Amino acid sequence: MKNVVVGIDVGGTNTVYGIVDKDGNIYGEGSIPTQAYQNFEDWSEALHKSIDDKMKELGNEFAIYGIGMGAPNGNYYSGCIEDAVNLNWNGKQNVVTTFKSLFGEDKLVVLTNDANAAAVGEMVYGGAKGMKDFIVITLGTGLGSGVVVNHQVVYGLDGNAGELGHIIFERNGRMCGCGRRGCLETYVSATGIKRTVFDLLANENVPSELRGLSFEEVTSEKIYKAAQKDDQIALMAFEETGKRLGMALADFAAFSTPEAFFLFGGLAKSGDYILEPTKRYMEENLCFIYKDKIKVLLSELNDKNAAVLGAAALAWAELN
Q1: CATH number for the domain harbouring residue 39
Q2: Smallest Cα–Cα separation from 69: which of 21, 140, 18, 104?
Q3: Contact (CB, 8 A) for 135 and 310
Q4: DSSP state of 209
Q5: How far apart are CA 135 and CA 168, in angstroms?
């Protein structure tokens, strides 16, 4: 019998999972559409059924040893998803209690937020192997961050530490889903770069293949593809986004002096278009005592499912 864990990545659009062994080998994967379920109970039951069906496909030689989950506003201490603005259900949803009832009271169930899960994945299976201090920046619909200090994920007093996407970057700036204005993720994220593109389209008199598209039609991938064709609006959008991220990283460096920042997620897949300006503006804005010490790297797990592997690694760490 081979012991495995289920690593689960909860996104606003889809919930993706993998059946993972201790070495990070994924034996089966699946997903359900998160947004299709209007309440937590229906989503939990649908996810349980999908995982159960996948285990039956794999056969009797595999046994679930534990479950790790990364989710928006997932609180490691409480075991709850708490007031996640990108999910259909509000309030506190007790993941640990619910999934123990579904999978068995003897099963380990551990929860953290999705960015922390990605950080654990980077530490165990990716480019942060051997690093004691680093920060993973997840560039998806919003901006998440997993802060690792001395090999430990930083959770803080209540499990909500390290939400760098909600540092105020510009006072009275863009409206954020959290209800405040000017949060970093409104400028640096897949959604943020779209907003920057539309600001540029309104203020710059240059041709662009992005003109005439609605906000819903524009994606970070389309912006990347336009940049590859030397589209000036797309190139300016990446420059502005990298500038803001680099300036923010220069500030973040002061409180933990990480060995490296890792960029992960859809926007990071644009490679040097986001990486080069980010590095440049970070170095320009670093205090002199930190200059030329901190790396900015692309995640080595960008072509894999880092959040799934991270959630699985979190479960294995608890089991050891």
Answers
A1: 3.30.420.40
A2: 18
A3: no
A4: T
A5: 18
Residue with tokens 């420059």, as numbered in its chain: 239
Residues 191 and 115 in one domain: no
- Burial (CB count <10 Å: 0-12, 13-18, 19+), residue 149: middle
Per-residue pLDDT tens listing for the chain (320 residues) = 789 999 999 988 899 999 999 999 999 999 999 989 999 999 999 999 999 999 999 988 999 999 999 998 899 999 999 988 778 888 899 999 999 999 999 999 999 998 898 899 899 888 999 999 999 999 988 899 999 999 999 999 988 898 999 999 999 999 998 899 999 999 999 999 999 999 999 999 999 999 999 999 999 999 999 999 999 999 999 999 999 999 999 999 999 999 999 999 889 999 999 999 999 999 999 999 999 999 999 998 866 677 799 899 999 988 87
Domain membership of residue 284 as a residue range? 131-298
